[in-house]
């Protein structure tokens, strides 16, 4: 099915110079009925120094036509009364003939504005069917996974990297459906993600008691329907309905950990919460997250509340301690917002969901806690504890006080092996190329839980080692998690070697990497 | 896939590192049960989530 960005243009493109005296406010007031989310997109274009705006009328084809047919089935008096593609460019051009000389590097962002009119529902308004804007190029803004989206401007093909945004229309989609389409676009070709398909899957789920018996897409999605849609698109996830849990649970397994796990793996996360909007409504809203900001100088890590307490005897500093905000979209207000990590209070949060990478069977929250058990257990090894390495001694100094930093990253077997092959410690030591034999030992998908110390992690972005877990099978909640594959510390590595008389056996080998190495960074 | 416990693995890893194995170490996992308790709590919450009736806009 044709993507919305590739829809055929009709008539001549109209060009606008965005230099003063052009007014974003005037333009949105005049053409898009003061729509708040569209104002936000114009502001993003301004902040990225857009010089030219190109406006095209387009045909409803592919996924756009699919949406129109779906709305028309339910509302026979529906009419699409406007459909435009607007693109913002960093180069000034003044005539349509110059469009051929533009390139994708000069494209700042685009959006498709759609006007749906249903007199019987008293609906007549513009919304953003979809948009993509380039990421804000600040070194502290981290988006682990961005996608190239295709679009055609005046018959010329371009592409833009970012994370898709969409807005609800109160007809066939609410915030839950548009949030899912944003997140799915990180994993599935956009042409396959229609609202008709999302709603078809959701409609097959039986309504809960107390809910209307038939499925109405404009009311959003229940948790059961969200789960069904994810399964229908073959996307793995880990989720918690916090509305079912008490305050103690929300403190023990904070929603931020699950959201961060989805973001840091490059898969994205969905947060459902109760809030009062500036439109004066109290609602159960849901928004997608896909990035975060990182503050290397945050004071928070010095507070005891920053520690993640697994229980009475296990704690560590999670890497998200240095995270200031989650980056996500809000369909009510626009794209690419920063939501402070601690802004939404636990009592407001009703639902958190982390998308899992393909083939991964559990989330980074579990991976991190299991790794902490292996980590504090392996410290009993006499070869490790008696190591002459000053970095091992520093590790023990911190680990005995349970002040190590842990960071869970999902990656493939090949990605991890390549990480080892390119790894250099502070003295430029490396592994021999034959370390690539590890590909034969490890599972296809892994959780790598990086081990670091407070003064090495945030500013230097380096680590002392990692614990590698099998991500392809959900671990048991008993002590033998059966997920350990490999561990690396300065000057020593461990392989599992089964069990003997109830004790885990490990093979220990000396490692040529003797000090700290770079973290594995997915951020773009 | 080679088994970690197999002689083939031991031969291969020793050859790769070019060094003799330090040891086969036997380590009891810590007696602390807070990680299993945490995982159990997580599993149970997710079972409740599967039955959730929460509606999101």
What does this structure look like?
The complex is a heterodimer of chains A (about 525) and B (about 55). Chain A starts with 8 loop residues before the first strand and ends in a 6-residue tail after the last strand. Chain A has twelve helices and 25 strands. With about 525 residues, chain A is α+β, with helices and mostly antiparallel strands. In chain A, helix 1 packs antiparallel against helix 2 and helix 5 (about 195-205) crosses helix 6 (about 225-230). Chain A has helices at about 25-30, 35-45, 60-75, 175-185, 195-205, 225-230, 245-250, 255-265, 365-380, 380-385, 390-400, 415-420, and strands spanning about 10-15, 50-60, 80-90, 105-120, 125-135, 140, 145-155, 155-160, 220, 235-240, 270-275, 280-295, 310, 315-320, 325-330, 335-340, 350-355, 405-410, 445-450, 460-465, 465-470, 485-490, 490-500, 505-510, 515-520. In chain A, the strands form five sheets. An eight-stranded mixed sheet of chain A has the order 13-14-18-19-21-22-23-24. In chain A, strands 6, 10, 11, 12, 15, 16 and 17 form a seven-stranded antiparallel sheet that branches. In chain A, strands 1-2-3-4-5 form a five-stranded antiparallel sheet, sandwiched between helices. Chain B has helices at about 5-15, 35-50, and strands spanning about 25, 55. Chain B has two helices and two strands. Chains A and B meet through strand 9, helix 6, strand 10, strand 12 and helix 9 of A and helix 1, strand 1, helix 2 and strand 2 of B. Strand 24 of chain A pairs antiparallel with strand 1 (about 25) of chain B.
């Amino acid at each position: 099915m044709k993507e919305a960005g590739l829809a055929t243009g009709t008539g001549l493109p109209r060009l606008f110079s965005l230099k003063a005296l052009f007014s974003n406010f005037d333009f949105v007031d005049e053409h898009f009925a003061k729509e708040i989310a569209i104002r936000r997109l114009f502001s993003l274009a301004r902040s990225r120094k857009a010089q030219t705006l190109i406006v095209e009328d387009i045909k409803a084809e592919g996924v756009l036509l699919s949406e129109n047919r779906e709305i028309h089935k339910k509302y026979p008096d529906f009419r699409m009364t406007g459909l435009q593609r607007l693109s913002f460019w960093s180069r000034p051009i003044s005539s349509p003939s110059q469009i051929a000389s533009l390139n994708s590097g000069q494209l700042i962002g685009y959006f498709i504005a759609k006007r749906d009119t249903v007199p019987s529902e008293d609906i007549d308004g513009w919304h953003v069917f979809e948009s993509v804007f380039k990421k804000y190029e600040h070194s502290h803004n981290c988006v682990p996974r961005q996608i190239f989206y295709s679009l055609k401007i005046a018959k010329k093909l371009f592409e833009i990297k970012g994370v898709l945004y969409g807005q609800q229309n109160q007809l066939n989609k609410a915030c839950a459906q548009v949030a899912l389409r944003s997140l799915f676009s990180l994993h599935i070709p956009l042409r396959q993600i229609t609202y008709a398909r999302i709603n078809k899957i959701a409609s097959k789920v039986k309504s809960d008691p107390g809910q209307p018996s038939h499925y109405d897409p404009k009311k959003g999605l229940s948790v059961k329907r969200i789960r069904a849609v994810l399964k229908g698109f073959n996307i793995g996830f880990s989720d918690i309905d916090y509305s079912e849990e008490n305050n103690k649970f929300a403190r023990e397994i904070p929603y931020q950990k699950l959201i961060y796990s989805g973001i840091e793996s490059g898969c994205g996360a969905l947060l459902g919460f109760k809030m009062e909007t500036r439109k004066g409504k109290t609602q159960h809203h849901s928004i997608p997250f896909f990035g975060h900001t990182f503050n290397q100088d945050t004071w928070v890590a010095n507070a005891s509340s920053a520690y993640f307490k697994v229980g009475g005897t296990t704690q560590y500093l999670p890497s998200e301690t240095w995270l200031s905000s989650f980056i996500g979209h809000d369909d009510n207000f626009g794209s690419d917002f920063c939501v402070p990590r601690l802004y939404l209070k636990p009592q407001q949060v009703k639902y958190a969901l982390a998308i899992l990478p393909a083939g991964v069977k559990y989330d980074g929250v579990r991976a991190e806690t299991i790794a902490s058990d292996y980590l504090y257990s392996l410290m009993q090894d006499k070869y490790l504890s008696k190591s002459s390495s000053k970095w091992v001694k520093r590790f023990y100094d911190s680990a005995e006080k349970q002040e190590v930093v842990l960071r869970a990253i999902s990656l493939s077997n090949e990605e991890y092996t390549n990480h080892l092959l390119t790894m250099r410690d502070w003295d430029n030591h490396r592994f021999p190329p034959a370390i690539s034999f590890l590909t034969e030992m490890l599972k296809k998908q892994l959780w790598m839980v990086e081990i670091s110390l407070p003064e090495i992690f945030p500013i230097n972005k380096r680590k002392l080692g990692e614990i590698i877990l099998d991500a392809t099978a959900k671990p048991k909640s008993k002590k033998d998690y059966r997920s350990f594959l490999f561990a690396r510390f300065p000057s020593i590595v461990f392989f599992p070697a089964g069990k003997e008389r109830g004790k885990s056996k490990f093979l220990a080998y000396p490692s040529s990497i003797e000090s700290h190495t770079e973290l594995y960074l997915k951020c773009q | 896939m080679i088994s970690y416990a197999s002689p083939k693995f031991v031969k291969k890893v020793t050859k790769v590192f070019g060094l003799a194995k330090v040891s086969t170490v036997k380590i009891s996992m810590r007696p602390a049960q807070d990680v299993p308790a945490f995982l159990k709590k997580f599993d149970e919450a997710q079972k409740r989530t599967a039955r959730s009736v929460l509606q999101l806009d």
